[in-house]
Amino acid sequence: MRAALVALVSAFVVVASGCGGSAAGVGADSAATMLKPGALVYWETETDPDSAQWKQVEELLGRFPDGDKWVAELRRSFEGDTGVTWDEVEGALGPRLGVAVYARSTADVGVVGLLKPEDPDETIALIERLNRQESEAPVVARAVDGWVVLSDKPGSIDAALKGEGDALADGEQFQDGMERLPDDALSRVYVDVSAALDAFGSADPQVRQSVRLLGLDALDFVGAWAKARDDGVELAGSLTGEAADRLLGAGENYSSKLLGLVPADAFAFASLQGEGVSGQFEGLQGNPLFGMALQDFEQETGIRFDDLVRILKGEAAFYAAPGAPIPELTLLLDSDDASRDREAVDRLLRTLAERGGGEVTEDGDVTTAVFEGFTVNVGAAGDTIVVTTNKDAIADLEAGAGDKLEDSDRFGDALEAAGAPDAYTGLFYVDLAQTIEVVMGFASSAGQSVPGEVSRNLEPLRSVVAYGEKDGDSGTSLVFVEIQ
Fold first, then answer.
1. Helix, strand, coil fractions of the chain, as percent rounded to 5
2. 55-60 long-range contacts, CB within 8 A, separation 24+
């Protein structure tokens, strides 16, 4: 959409939270009831400052010391640039915004926006005012049955409106997809994968081949949502179809067994079951273009691709913990043959050292490479390969010394707040409070001062948790930022 439309819609996003739900499903007040079937993308978001979601956004922003100041500055900037007041914007938008994308090819793409304000004529008058400020890129606005339909050209509006025919909202596939997205979200997006592939992937053979390799042609549905909660912000996406495994890089749900090795003072942790990732790599080996690149990689580095795939078969976990002069960074690789896989990781480390000017030494069961002051150590703790910047961590992990992260309250509380399940396709965790403390400490030791405005507005951030979950041929990935 052109700048005037962007300005109008963006005004609400940046300002509404300073003035103040649940989003409705596919009902009579949904823009999808006005649109033809076949939209590649359909997005709807709350635009009512009195809705529950926007009031929750306002409350979350209020937890930041300068939240009100940010909103006021954004509002002043917008009003100064456009000459449009917030009251005018609020009246022009209505309760919900719908945006749809239609396309027959890469050269024929149309985008339309739909609003249902109390006074459509008032909204159109406001858009015309914005158009006069940017006459080179006018927005086309049309009142239709109480709605205001917007686009950059009249043809896009004609191609999108259903007229007397069936509506996008009536389609079974669309309804099934939207039902997978929470109806109390601030914003929801639905993507018709098959329609997108028909429009963009039919002409180019390389595109079609990539689509097949990635499994996009086996997807039934892709969707996403954003949601304000009383303890933070949730962003998530959902896939359905035979290719969900391949695209999510995951097999079945699992619980990390490497988490039991991670020390309690770790401020970041990530776990991934490598079976899905290695399966993707193995599938790519049959692709001629990838095969040629693979041969070049092996000849150039001396590293066998099969070794990398085998190493990634099991669980891989990473954690970061306090250390000096830099934090400890440790990678854990579960193995069914620790001796064999340890040898492969050693070869990789030696190759990297040779090419990066590093020096390799051995001390007992630990191989160490030093790269201009940055040290990488490789060892083993039982059946787990350990790659770490802290040599002492290898012995500590082998001995099982100290308290563990999985037993700490801060870790458990963060996962509970995010709603993380006991079994997942992957897990990611960051203690933001501790991470910020580490970063501030480094800045101070380096003689750098952190502005007070920055430091005080980081205090409400507590944690980030991300996880994936699989149910049959459906998969969901969710990120949650905890704000206190």
1. 45, 30, 30
2. 55/20, 55/21, 56/228, 56/229, 56/230, 57/16, 57/17, 57/20, 57/186, 57/228, 58/17, 58/18, 58/19, 58/20, 59/230, 60/228, 60/232, 60/233, 60/483
- What secondary structure letter does DSSP report for 382? T
Q: Kindly give, in sequence order, each residue whose CB lies less than 8 Å from that of residue 305, ignoring residues fewer than 6 positions away.
A: 281, 285, 294, 297, 298
Q: pTM of the predicted model, to two decimals?
A: 0.86
pLDDT in tens, 355-380: 777 888 888 889 999 988 789 999 99
The C-alpha atoms of residue 214 and residue 206 are separated, in whole angstroms, by 12
Report, as ranges of residue numbers, the positions in the chain whose pLDDT lies below 70: 1-27, 135, 201-218, 243-251, 275-291, 301-303
Burial of 359 (0-12, 13-18, 19+ CB in 10 A): exposed
Inter-axis angle of helices 67-82 and 52-61, to 10 degrees?
110
Residue 78 and residue 10: Cα distance in Å, rounded? 9
C-alpha span between 280 and 106 (Å, rounded): 28
Question: Which residues sit opposite 151 in a β-bridge?
Answer: 140
Q: How far is CA 415 from CA 224, 392, 418, 431, in A?
A: 21, 29, 5, 11
Tokens of 87: 């009251």
CB-based contacts of 28, cutoff 8 Å, min separation 6: none
